[in-house]
Design goal:
Layout lengths: L6 E3 L2 E3 L6 E6 L2 E10 L3 H20 L2 H17 L1 H12 L3 H21 L7 E3 L5 E9 L2 E5 L7 H12 L3 E5 L5 H13 L7 E3 L4 H10 L5 E5 L2 H11 L3 E5 L4 E5 L5 H13 L9 E7 L3 H14 L18 H17 L2 E4 L15 E4 L16 E7 L2 H8 L4 E2 L1 E5 L3 H10 L4 E4 L15 E2 L8 H7 L1 E9 L11
Parallel strand pairs: 7-8, 7-10, 8-9, 10-11, 12-13, 12-18, 13-16, 15-16, 18-19
Antiparallel strand pairs: 1-2, 3-4, 5-6, 6-21, 14-15, 17-20
Helix pairs in contact: 1-7, 2-4, 2-6, 3-4, 3-6, 4-5, 9-10
Amino acid sequence: MVSKFKLFIDGEWITAENGETYQRVNPADPEDVLGEFQKGNKQDTEKAIEAAQFAFEDWSETPAPKRAKYLIKVAQFLTEQQDVLARYMTREMGKTLRDSCADVQEAIDLAYYAAAEGKRLGGYTVPSEKHKKFAMTLRLPIGVAGLISPWNFPLAIPARKLFYALICGNTTVLKPASDTPICATKLVELLDKAGIPKGVVNLVTGPGESVGMTLVKDKRVPVVSFTGHKDTGATILQEAGVKRVHLELGGKNPVIVMDDADLKLAVDGVLWGGYETSGQRCTAASRVIVHEKVKKNFEKMLLEKVRRLKLGNGLDSKTDVGPLVNEAAQKKVAKYVEIGKTEGAKLLTGGSVPSNMKGWFFEPTLFTDCTRFMRIAQEEIFGPVVSLLPALDLSDALNIANCVEYGLSSSIYTRSIKNAIVAVNKLQTGLTYINSSTIGSEVQLPFGGAKQSGNTREDGPEGVRQFTELKTIYIDYSGKLQKAFTD
């Protein structure tokens, strides 16, 4: 029997007004129907916005340490259900069970970190220019937050957006990706179980054109947080009007391997960064820029390990690379492989849809002898495809790394402190790793990118700044009028 999932609006689990639903299947086995989901629309979304708006006053006046208690409860529930949630995630998104457990763990870490922010939410004080005058700032909630999350981290990213918005005193309407609605629904179930007041958290599943754009355009939603494709992000900026818009939009992330690098360590980092989650991460290591002196040796070492990767169902503990999220993703990756071959890149391994598997699988793929302006070296493929590019020296490598429109994550493998510091200063990305891969960010530090990768930072102290208004306060206790810019 197919499980049926509902919307969550004003503390109630309800069906969509139009009665329409859609089904989602397991990407490793399209015959495995995961559930039936509500196809929410503009009317459902407006109802959720109204509920969030009504709940805002009481929730925003609830002391932040008390708001934190709900998040701590959710962290405990997530910990208790980690294995169950990981299995849901693997079945609906395709990533390996190991990868799914890490996704749930990130949500747990986020809950505890955001809850701790409830004891801070700090402004700052400064000396006033005037006698007997006090100057300070406060961080105050903004209002209803429209949260639009992607499918590749179906629990961690909704958790990130929800937890920071809630601890800051905002109420929320969450629209999860249509490909992965189960994990988001389970997260909202846990918030409901924790006793979150009605209207504070609302969930509307359905198309981006109706649900997502209603959140973007509605004037009652003063802050929108979106993670997804850069073209959608550009449309959101055009349609949102004057409101706070946070965008995290992907990347084309380089790994630089210098001639003094530990090649075994670099190979392991590329293997993890390029093929974990089947390459379906905004921080995936899709470009590897290798010093020409070590390129031949590095290429041989990497190729040997890529060929050993086991493709299969993520629930199988022996699987290294799971399926892509849907058939459209599979076709997109296949298209880029053909583009790479046409452009003259050399295909070393992979490049095909396996004929003996019924899911949306794609072979782990490795190209070499790529040039910086090939499309496979410029555009985000979002699949298990890695391209190797030769570099003459560090300066050449940095120029290659920076010649794309994205700027999310980057990495350099080197034993030289000088090389590392130069790279940190010159790489045009929001994150840089030294002797580590392009993936693996931690919740206590900001996450986000430059250029077309987005316009914000999430996590850490920046998570609070995203969802608060900074108010400046002046308290004059002199008992007389003190005019500005006068003695």
